[in-house]
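Hi V.,

You were right to ask for the full record rather than a summary. Here it is.
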Amino acid sequence: MTEAVFRIEDLHVSVEGTEILKGVDLEVLPGEVHALMGPNGSGKSTLASTLLGNTDYQVTSGRIVYKGEDITAWPTDVRGKAGIFLAFQYPEEIPGVPVVQFLRQALAARKEMGDLSVLEVRLSIMEWMKKLGMDPSFGDRYLNEGFSGGEKKRNEVLQMAILEPDMAILDETDSGLDIDALRIVAHGVNEVRAARPHLGVLLITHYQRILDELAADHVHILVNGRIVESGGPELSERLEAEGYEAWRS
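Predicted structure:
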């Protein structure tokens, strides 16, 4: 039996004393793509922040398990070094730090290899930027400064490619993208998955349209802090046709 790369067990999370997540269970096997969908206020962002290790979100019961190990109490940096990647809905701008420098430092921390040469990282970045259809000058730009929404999301995919995680959590990666940018980003995610076939992916999204480009093995609907239904890709199609009202009661 294949062991899950990532598992959420009866997770309850509170923010400032208010319970937001009320017992979430979810298991991702190596190579699987899981889509988590839900209306505004359902708890999707709370779950993403909790999985990142944001201390503003208190786990009151349940646990998060990564590759068989309980990581519920692990800080954010330890999770990242262990191979968990989170693509942010709103990536932060870091003026003065070129993309290539950021990636070199992040990769050195992830791999615990000390300082990697600029040439090694640049060659890897150039190779991946070519696969992702990005301009070669991208690596010299300051991280997310002046980037369009699509460029920020493609940069997140580039980071995921370079850091080689075992589990990727994509928090509304499709947010704010037009259909062309969405296709480019989805293509990038598929390129990374092709290079790392055991990568587990949890895609948090509002919309069906990204699932037209990035096929999900499992779809989960989160409403009022609980997963109220799980199924295959047909579930997202039903959701597109019916909306969330059928699951709100």
